[in-house]
Design goal:
- The chain is of the alpha/beta class.
- It has two domains: 251 residues, Rossmann fold; 95 residues, no CATH class.
- The chain contains nine helices and 15 strands.
- Helix 4 runs parallel beside helix 5 and helix 7 packs parallel to helix 8.
- It is globular and about 60 Å long.
- About 5% of the residues have low confidence.
């Protein structure tokens, strides 16, 4: 199924050919709603969200209008005794725990176990155990299916002889919570997204469900098969380049950086003030755009115009609706932090077709 990378919220998430089955979803670590918009495109009803950042929550509410919203740490959410009954009857519990401890460009093991802020303005918390807190919530709510997204760097830890085998711990906790689990490494560029973005998705299904197979009811005795092979045609930058010639930066220094960048290759520079390496890349008209990174120091330049990508190009790269209201947050930050909606639409639509439409409680 092809989902449009260029679309509008005013269209009410209706995609021709997609049944409005209204299976229910609750999203944790929801950010600006990238995953949630994907579920909606695939016919789901996203009834609520959890987020720790008040600005991101404002953005989510402004664009998605959730029935329930919990602006708090997941450690507080998982211990609540007053959660709505609907959250105990979910079809899917979704989550993207913050991943700086596993990101290839983050601080990784240096900050393992330390309390820190994922972003300025947030309270301090131990980021590398948030995935386990999320599974605690899974055990409490017992949704039919769980989808948890993260960076592929998380998979490197078993090979690093580090403190724990993180992936094994995830599998053990899902098993203890009553779920079969498997993980997939998926690339958004093969799923109808104009962006090379590889992520790992842990997908779990509750063990005590029954499913119709060839008109017969079978109780799961192992994780049922889920085919998540996608091979959409690549969408090159030429297809999404916007003609709006807006000079976002007019400083000579930035123009020199644009001139130094070679198409399709990163240029690293040093910030004298913060002593950090910042990466710059000039896109190529004939290739799929690179990963959109939220970090302010990672700048993506237009191939032929001396400017950064504008908001229209960023929205297309991230498959965000062109009428999305970013309020006062930089579009690159929200899009860089989000699962592209079309990526999640592809995954969740297959889950509906292969699992949810056949499950009988």
């Amino acid at each position: 199924m092809k989902f449009p990378y260029q679309w509008f919220l005013k269209d009410k998430f209706f995609i021709k050919g997609i049944p409005q089955h209204k299976s229910t979803v609750f999203s944790c670590f929801a950010g600006g709603g990238g995953s949630s918009m994907g579920y909606k495109l695939a016919g789901y009803d996203v009834i609520g969200c959890n987020e720790i950042d008040p600005k991101m929550m404002d953005c989510y509410i402004e664009n998605l209008h959730p029935k329930y919203s919990f602006l708090e740490q997941i450690q507080i959410l998982k211990n609540r005794t007053d959660l709505p009954k609907e959250l105990y009857n979910l079809d899917i519990l979704d989550g993207s725990p913050p991943c700086s401890s596993f990101s290839r460009v983050g601080v990784r093991e240096k900050d393992w176990g330390k309390k820190k802020k994922f972003k300025e303005g947030q309270i301090k918390q131990v980021l590398d155990t948030l995935f386990f807190d999320f599974i605690d919530l899974v055990k409490k709510l017992q949704p039919k299916i769980v989808i948890a997204e993260n960076v592929t760097g998380l998979l490197l830890y078993p090979a690093m002889n580090y403190k724990i085998n993180y992936v094994n711990q995830i599998y053990k906790k899902f098993d203890n919570a009553g779920y079969y689990c498997h993980h997939w490494i998926l690339d958004a560029s093969k799923m109808g997204v104009p962006q090379v973005r590889k992520r790992v998705f842990f997908i779990a299904i509750r063990k005590n469900l029954k499913i119709y197979i060839s008109n017969k009811i079978s109780l799961f005795n192992l994780c049922p098969k889920l085919d998540l092979k996608f091979n959409e045609n690549p969408i090159i930058f030429k297809n999404i380049s916007d003609n709006l010639d807006v000079k976002i930066w007019d400083k000579t220094k930035e123009h020199l950086l644009w001139e130094k960048c070679k198409q399709g290759k990163y240029l690293s520079t040093v910030s004298l003030n913060k002593n950090h390496y910042f990466s710059h890349i000039k896109l190529n008209m004939l290739t799929v755009p690179t990963t959109i990174i939220a970090n302010n120091g990672s700048n993506i330049w237009h191939p032929t115009i001396k400017r950064l990508l504008n908001i229209i190009e960023l929205c297309k790269c991230g498959t965000f609706p062109l009428d999305y209201n970013f309020l006062n947050i930089k579009p690159k930050y929200i899009i860089g932090m989000s699962v592209p909606p079309v990526m999640m639409a592809q995954i969740s639509y297959q889950i509906y077709l292969q699992w949810l439409s056949k499950i009988k409680t």
